[in-house]
Amino acid sequence: MLSWIRYAIDVDLNFRPTGRFSNGLNFVDLLAQLLGISSPPPFADPTTWGTRILGGVNYASAAGGILDESGQHYGDRFSLSQQVVNLEGTLSQLRTMMSPQNFTNYLTKSLVVLVFGSNDYLNNYLLPNVHSSSLRYRPPEFANLLIKQYTRKLLTLHSLGLRKIFIAGVGPLGCIPNQRATAPPGRCVDSVNQILGKFNQWLRSLVDQLNQRSPGANYVYGNTYRTVGDILKNPATYGFSVADRACCGTGRNQGQITCLPLQNPCPNRSQYVFGMHSILLKLQTPFWSDELSTVHPPTRILSMSNR
Question: Is the peptide bond before 139 cis (omega within 30 degrees of 0)?
Answer without folding.
Answer: no
